[in-house]
């Protein structure tokens, strides 16, 4: 399946990017697993996804991006759990959020980004992930993928020129 | 302010104090229990929730094992509502060998514990989650007990037989007149007089006794535990080897509890007990040998309690010193009349400890009343348990409170506020009325509110609003206290699914993305 832009993540950040792109006449596909925390503050993103769909965007609801293929510093395709065919586009946007939405996964000693294996900014010492005071700023809330000045995601230190990170998945 | 003079004052609102005040009340003594925090605030609320069959102690401590199996049978009867008759398995892995098992079965039988060797294939069929490498298994009458419910039931029964319960009031000193202990002084400066004072304050007993010139050699032994968000086994799973770290997994309600460690800690640390990341690593490493799927099971939180062990020799790690019952008659031992200490022991043997202490109190006071606690059922466990024909919102309450649901108003308070544990408004009102709560942490001990898989993430603000309305305090403060208390238990296990939950809690608390 070919698109101009594939957006991974249908929460607040993914929808905002999609709306601008659809308005500009781009052919957009949104992979939305439905784990967004956006509804905690904003309205549920489902209405926005429905509106995007009406305007011609393809929304893969309940689907999850499982693997992105990178060749020569560019993403060439993304495979999802439910589609037989890979998603192919000129540009890719990573908007998968942090831990709750499974944009970042973790075990006792590591934090990783599961789709592209992007470089993640985190402290290797787990006891520094949190502050014992619940109300204090929590270091883990700043963990996220590393990007260059243009917002391109870094994988093994190299900027992927057609992959941009937006929203909570970023390390800022 | 003139305060009533009691026959007996019991210091400490854990299971030992609660069982003792109940026994005293049933024998017609005027009794006061005084506790600095909430009921079940110390080690009584920070353990496995294991009703020992005694099998764990059979090889090393015959007397302790015999006490356990007798009390195990009694509690199944008198506290049927608090005990889940899960039974237990002791499994042997290749590295444990089968020699220990043979001796274990023999020693169990000598102590009167029904221990039955089971074919490993049969054991795996009964409990598919246990380590498939097992070479042997023994079935024993272990069970799961809800310690909060058990202590509450004792407190309720004591109150109904005329005892007074004074919570959130610390005893600052023991009052002496002419060498005799005649009462206690509270943090408010009140002096409450009694003919006998009983110390049942767990590890905090030694400090109180020292003030009265009595030296009790106590060793705080820390035990850390982990709660998993699923019931991975139906039975209590033990390792059939010399007792060691993390070799017991106990199912309780909808969770499983893995523990424990055993480390000597400084007495100053006992007021702020929490599990450390190192203890968590150790528990998981060992626990995965017992039940491998624990590696993938969501962890809810980790916590720790302090065993009040009494020692002659303060060296060692705490696993080899006596966990037996220690009853000290300070008149005889130290020449300080009016003071008794009851400590050591286990959750399982608390009723027996109370009986021994109350026998001594009665002897001192010249009462010949006989102990009835072994035969009289506790509130909630009296008569036949209500049947599950009741409306859905009452079912969990019946499971928790048994016949006590008759005291709750489900007509006006039937709405479920905590969905994980199906706790209704009626139970909250009942807990506030019977136990007096200051905050959601206290409410949790008496209702299980916020103890389920969401740890209050979804329901906390709803509950805070209801409680704030009853207590006339700001709801925000209730939320803040509870969030911080849960956070303490989550941080040592904060990765994977627990980290997901942590992000959710942070965001919902701050109402922002």
Question: Short summary of the structure?
Answer:
Chain A is mostly beta strands and 172 residues long. Chain A is 12% helix and 33% strand. Chain A has one domain: 3-Layer(bba) Sandwich (FAD/NAD(P)-binding domain).
What's the number of helices of chain B?
16
Unreliable stretches of chain B (pLDDT < 50, length at least 5) are none
Flag low-confidence runs of chain A: none
Helix content of chain A: 10-25%
CATH overall fold name of chain A: FAD/NAD(P)-binding domain
Main traits of this protein?
heterodimer; A: 172 residues; mainly beta; FAD/NAD(P)-binding domain; 6-stranded mixed sheet; two-stranded antiparallel sheet; 2 helices; 12 strands; globular; B: 513 residues; alpha+beta; D-Amino Acid Oxidase, Chain A, domain 2; 3 domains; 9-stranded mixed sheet; 8-stranded mixed sheet; 16 helices; 22 strands
Structural summary, described in words:
The complex is a heterodimer of chains A (172) and B (513). Chain A is mainly beta and 172 residues long. Chain A has helices at residues 12-23, 46-54, and strands at 2-8, 28-32, 58-61, 65-71, 74-80, 88-94, 105-106, 111-112, 120-121, 144-145, 152-155, 158-165. A six-stranded mixed sheet of chain A has the order 3-2-1-6-12-11, covered by helices on one side. The longest helix of chain A is centred in the first third of the chain and has 12 residues, at 12-23. The N and C termini of chain A lie far apart (33 Å). Chain B is of the alpha+beta class. Chain B folds into three domains: 5-43 and 148-217 and 317-365, FAD/NAD(P)-binding domain, CATH 3.50.50.60; 80-144 and 220-304, D-Amino Acid Oxidase, subunit A, domain 2 (D-Amino Acid Oxidase, Chain A, domain 2, 2-Layer Sandwich), CATH 3.30.9; 395-512, no CATH class. Chain B is 35% helix and 22% strand. Chain B contains 16 helices and 22 strands. The longest helix of chain B is centred in the first third of the chain and has 17 residues, at 62-78. The N and C termini of chain B lie far apart (54 Å). The model of chain B has no long low-confidence stretch (mean pLDDT 92). The chains are: A mainly beta (172), B alpha+beta (513).
């Amino acid at each position: 399946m070919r698109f101009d832009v594939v957006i991974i993540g249908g929460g607040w950040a993914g929808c905002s990017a999609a709306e601008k792109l659809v308005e500009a006449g781009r052919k957009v596909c949104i992979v939305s697993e439905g784990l967004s925390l956006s509804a905690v503050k904003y309205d549920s993103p489902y209405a926005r996804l429905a509106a995007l769909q009406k305007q011609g965007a393809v929304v893969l609801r309940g689907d999850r991006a499982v693997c992105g293929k990178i060749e020569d510093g560019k993403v060439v395709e993304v495979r999802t759990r439910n589609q037989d065919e890979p998603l192919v586009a000129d540009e890719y946007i990573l908007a998968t959020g942090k831990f709750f939405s499974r944009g970042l996964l973790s075990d006792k000693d590591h934090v990783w980004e599961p789709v592209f294996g992007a470089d993640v900014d985190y402290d290797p010492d787990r006891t520094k992930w949190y502050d014992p005071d619940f109300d204090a700023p929590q270091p883990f809330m700043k963990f996220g993928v590393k990007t260059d000045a243009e917002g391109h995601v870094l994988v093994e230190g190299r900027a992927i020129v057609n992959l941009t990170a937006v929203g909570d998945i970023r390390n800022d | 302010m003139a305060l009533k003079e009691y026959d007996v004052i019991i210091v400490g609102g854990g299971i030992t104090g609660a069982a003792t005040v109940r026994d005293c009340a049933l024998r017609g003594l005027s009794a006061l229990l005084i506790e600095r925090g909430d009921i079940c605030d110390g080690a009584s609320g920070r353990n496995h929730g294991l009703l020992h069959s005694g099998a764990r102690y059979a090889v090393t401590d015959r007397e302790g094992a015999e006490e356990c199996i007798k009390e195990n049978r009694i509690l199944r009867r008198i506290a049927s509502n608090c005990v889940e008759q899960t039974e237990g398995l002791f499994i042997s892995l290749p590295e444990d060998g089968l020699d220990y098992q043979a001796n274990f079965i023999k020693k169990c039988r000598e102590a009167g514990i029904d221990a039955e060797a089971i074919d490993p294939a049969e054991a795996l069929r009964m409990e598919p989650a246990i380590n498939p490498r097992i070479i042997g298994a023994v079935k024993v009458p272990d069970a799961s007990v809800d310690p909060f419910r058990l202590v509450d039931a004792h407190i309720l029964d004591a109150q109904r037989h005329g005892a007074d319960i004074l919570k959130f009031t610390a005893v600052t000193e023991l009052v002496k007149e002419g060498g005799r202990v005649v009462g206690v002084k509270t943090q408010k400066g009140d002096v409450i007089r009694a003919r006998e004072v009983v110390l049942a304050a767990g590890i905090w007993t030694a400090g109180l006794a020292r003030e009265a010139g009595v030296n009790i050699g106590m060793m705080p032994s820390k035990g850390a535990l982990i709660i998993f968000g699923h019931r991975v086994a139906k039975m209590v799973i033990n390792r059939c080897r010399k007792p060691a770290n993390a070799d017991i997994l106990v199912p309780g309600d909808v969770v499983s509890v893995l523990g424990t460690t055993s480390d000597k800690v400084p007495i100053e640390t006992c007021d702020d007990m929490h599990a450390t990341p190192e203890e968590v690593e150790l528990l998981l490493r060992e626990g995965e040998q017992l039940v491998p799927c624990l590696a993938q099971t969501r962890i809810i939180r980790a916590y720790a309690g302090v065993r009040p062990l009494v020692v002659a020799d303060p060296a060692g790690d705490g696993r080899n010193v006596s966990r037996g019952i220690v009853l000290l008659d300070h008149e005889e031992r130290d020449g300080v009349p009016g003071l008794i200490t009851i400590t050591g022991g286990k959750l399982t043997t608390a009723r027996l400890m109370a009986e021994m202490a109350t026998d001594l109190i009665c002897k001192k006071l010249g009462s010949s009343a006989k102990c009835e606690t072994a035969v009289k059922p506790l509130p909630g466990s009296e008569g036949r348990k209500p049947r599950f024909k009741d409306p859905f919102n009452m079912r969990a309450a019946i499971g928790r409170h048994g016949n006590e649901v008759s005291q709750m108003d489900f007509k006006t308070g039937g709405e479920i506020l905590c969905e994980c544990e199906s706790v209704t408004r009626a139970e909250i009102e009942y807990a506030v009325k019977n136990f007096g709560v200051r905050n959601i942490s206290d409410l949790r001990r008496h209702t299980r509110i916020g103890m389920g898989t969401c740890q209050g993430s979804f329901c906390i603000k709803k509950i805070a609003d209801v409680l704030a309305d009853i207590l006339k305090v700001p709801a925000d403060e209730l939320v803040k206290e509870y969030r911080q208390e849960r956070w303490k238990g989550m941080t040592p296990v904060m990765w994977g699914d627990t980290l997901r939950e942590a992000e959710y809690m942070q965001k919902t608390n701050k109402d922002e993305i």
